[in-house]
Queue: 2 jobs
Job 1
Amino acid sequence: MTARNAQAWANPPRVPPSHFVSGWVYRDPAIYDAEQAKIFRRVWRFAAHESEMPEAGAYRTFVHACEPMMVVRETGDRFAGFIDRAGPAGARLLPGPAGQCRSTRGLRPCRTAAKWGFVFVTLDPEAPDLDSYLGDALDIFRDVFEGREFSYEVFHFHQAIVEANWKAWQETILDLYHEFMHVVLRRTQMPATAMTARSLRQHRNGHVSIGGLRALYGNYQAYRVRSEGEALPGLTPDDARFTPLFPDTTIIARGTVLRVDTVTPLGPHRTLVESRGLGIKGESPADRRMRIRHHNDYWGPLGRNVPEDAYAAEACERAFGRGAALFQTIARDEDGRGQDDCGLRAFYAEWSRRLGRPACAPTNADAISRGEQEGKP
Amino acid sequence: MTEQNVRELVYRSCLALDREDFDGFLALCDPALHYVVTAYSPEIRKEMTWMEQDLAGMKALLAMVPQHLRRTGSLHRHVSVYQVEAPASDGTIGALSSFLVTHTALDGGSRLFAVGHYHDRIAATGGRHLLKTRRAHLETRDLGIGLHIPI
């Protein structure tokens, strides 16, 4: 092994520029502001599922690009999004996260569109339409959503403030290598199929889809085996697939149940994570109970997996957030299979394109001195 | 079964969980244990179940806790038993308690972690007083990085 001195530790990894990320992306306030302006104000963002607004006038609030936002069901399948501030003082009108909206008069509208019951908004009047933005990234879920005589319904919602940069959370989704961290995945997912059976696809606009995963749920002693009859249409009970949509939303299926996550940056070192669980609207109480259980096993706040993801994001923050870690390497090349980092590279390629600066060297500090981490201009 | 028996069982169950004495906690549970954690979401306007276990499930879950990467530090449950009901026809007694859970980090800082109520039913089984059902209803819905053990 070659001995390293302090300078050597500060040098960028010897991999192509697309294969590593500077630590500044996690902590620079100027980068955070640029992300708000050049990413979040320009993209389509998942706002809420249609089932959260069951009747005309029902609304859901959320925060997007630092703006208090709301979506409301107008009539039938028509939804409209607004910035929830009005009057000379710009005060928020809506008192809670959900309810019945009497009027949207005076609120600034934003473009709104829905796909498969997922309602999206964008603050950018020039953004491409939603279908163009999503492209074929959600094709992996076509069997689950299209041509069904039923609709889906959100049965679970929780949120958590994670003390980490928002990208650290997205990386827990995109980085398949991190499955080694989860005892549940080591036992249920990793032995279920060959690594070569997995498929990681990069899509336009930084979206990624991941399929070919399976899980042997009986391998974890506190889980029950999932039966064929419990699976959602279009899925097998051991199926696992997911689509991280750039930059902030992920749709995940685990055979019998669906999850949708969004992240909202609250600052360079603070992130709001919102998590929804979905089942079939009108299903029997027994089926709903089963789906809730399966959701909670992995993804609930008292589940086995998601708390570990949050733990990991905060642990990375402790290293990157204060400059102790200088670079993140995303260099696993496995031909779009196994634990390939191509999803992370797609994310950071889009990030770099939108910000107009490479994620491997996003500040002058990177360019001027690889080793003088204190000397950021 | 006296009111004092009920109060003692509620407190002992919390002490066992605070100490992460899982065997001790399970020894206080009835074979017919039904344990749930619930919360109401104003976002989706629904009651939610965040955990549901029977005794076998709880045993399996707790046995796996040391294998998991999880929140460091310790939790402390501060519990007040508000109400102890008269015995039901099956001999069980219901109790309503309030809980505040604080988390103390490894660096010694403490902060409020969760607030809620326990809705318990206590059974007298084989001469012992055991927890037959517990519904831990959370008012707090942001548990930060989450939790691997029951509230």
Job 2
Amino acid sequence: MRIEILKRPQNSPLMAVAAPLLAIGLTLITGAVIFVALGKDPLYGLYVFYVEPLTALWTIEELAVKAVPLILIALGLSLCYRANAWNIGAEGQFTLGAITGAIIPVYFPEWNSWMVLPLMLVMGAAGGLFWASIPAFLRVRFGASEILTSLMLVYVAQHFLDWLLRGPFRNPNGFNYGETRIFQEAARVPILIADTRVRIGLVIALVAVPLIWFLLRRTLAGFAVDVVGQAPRAARFGGFSRNKVIVGTFMASGAFAGLAGILEAAGPLGQLKPVLSPGYGFTAIIVAFVGRLNPVAIVFAGILIALSYLGGEAAQISLRLSEKMARVFQGVLLFYVLACNTLVHNRIRIVRSPRPASAPAAGSAVEVGNGNR
Amino acid sequence: MGIAESVVATIITASLPLLLAALGELVAERSGVLNLGVEGMMMMGAVAAFGIAFATGNGGLGVLAAVLAGMAMALLFAGVALGLAANQVAAGLALTLLGLGLAGPIGEGWVDRPGVKLPTLDVPVLSDLPFVGPLLFSQDPLFYLAVALTAGVAWFLFRTRPGLILRSVGDNPHSAYALGLPVLRIRLAAVLFGGACAGLAGAYLALVYTPIYNETMTGGRGWIALALVVFATWLPVRLAVGALLFGAASILQLHAQALGVGVPSQLLTAMPYLVTILVLVLISRNRVLLRSHTPASLGQPFVPER
């Protein structure tokens, strides 16, 4: 018995919806198995991870706080991945966005105009955009792998932040800790709903969703992204520049990651610290794929992954498990999503008969080869 | 050991995990499979090596566990990327995220604990030679293994029939399949070899390189190994040279920090990553050189036609 993959003539619309749900189901089953292996009650474990965080108001607020950067970054990344351009350095662009956005509150702490925050957001987005444009430029100009260079720049950004926090950005009133001063009130992202931790970053993320959707479905630029990604040859004949698309999608995703960075620094954090995110830039890669690179689905994927972060924290308290279990669940989920994605493009058939002459014997193969020539 | 000897010795130590991981990736890529999960496989190798050696006190068992862990991770990747013909870039990323994720809870109890060190093996007579003796003939077993593997891979790929077959699968899987070669099985073997090597690299980090366990033990070395394969234009011997250069860059920046040259230490720490970018740019500029060595079907999923 063996498994055969047969290409579908057309992508299955049913599977496009069913595949991520199937992946989530498989992740839950795997999670239950892991809990049993760790000697915990599997149902209680899953309850703690995925349900308990939804039962209290403050955890729902926390869910929104964590989902905002994930959704924003994943929206940008989905553009890149649709174009087959591989930006995996969003974590670095997030860091740089936080840095450039923080220039105003660090150097002009007395400035309390309404202009401060919008300026910071623009500067943050510009910082992320700049950082992402480096691998894009190196790719189109020199052919250097954007995968590797964008990732290397994550480490560079991290060390740059570390240097700033111990030098130019250090809090002059602090006790030599590697932190900036607390941002002034005008440099903080306002709270959206009184007495909660939910800030207007949520609105920005939710406004970005229809924008990206519109870009992809209703504009030539969005069309170019999909054509370059799915049919590079057709794109070339159609006059779409692959290089322009690579640079454009990288810049857009960098801007989104940078915006997420400054929203985080000026929002929940209120200052720059050596560790700005629990790996949002990397986790957003998972969000983008779980959302099948679709802007609307990415919102749900972002909430789901944010939920697993909270679940990790809850599991640490009530199950005495490492909060890092969250990252295991996230990794497992991504694997299942990629595996189940195959069902969208292909039909899987289980064949009972022994292997037919699918791989022709060496002798006949020579004939085939000659015949082709 | 004199100063020069000890500097060279540390360079060799720094380059070895890169060489081991990159060798495995080179073979996988020669078969046409781009596995970006090196960092994750390496981390799981390090975790397995540290844990088993810690529990049993036996470094050899640790190495064995690392190899098996690396191969198990590679098998996961192969299931998705080869079996289900998923996007290799995404599947490799998933492997890295999963490996780094798994390492967290598994290794949590060992953070900052000292581990088991592999013993050094002296080659009789040769280890008494001046300079080269202590550097090349008084090393840990993984060093000798890495040297043998480099020569072995070079010989296998370019001097044997199975090596030729593996390269042909990487260059044109459709023709290879038409000639009756089991393309996916060959790719699976290459990917598993890559996993084993990444596991060895992890074992080296856990049992030789770092005296204590920490969660960022791999520190991007898996990604640097991926860049090294490009730098070496998919040739094993160049890989060894490249690994030494990268090792030198990372060690010299440490010495520069100790000497207190007028440059921020963070810039020096970021140096290996900057050097990687620079090297990628320099090598990628030379399109002719790259095109003549890059496996032609690198990264493209293969589905047998029936």
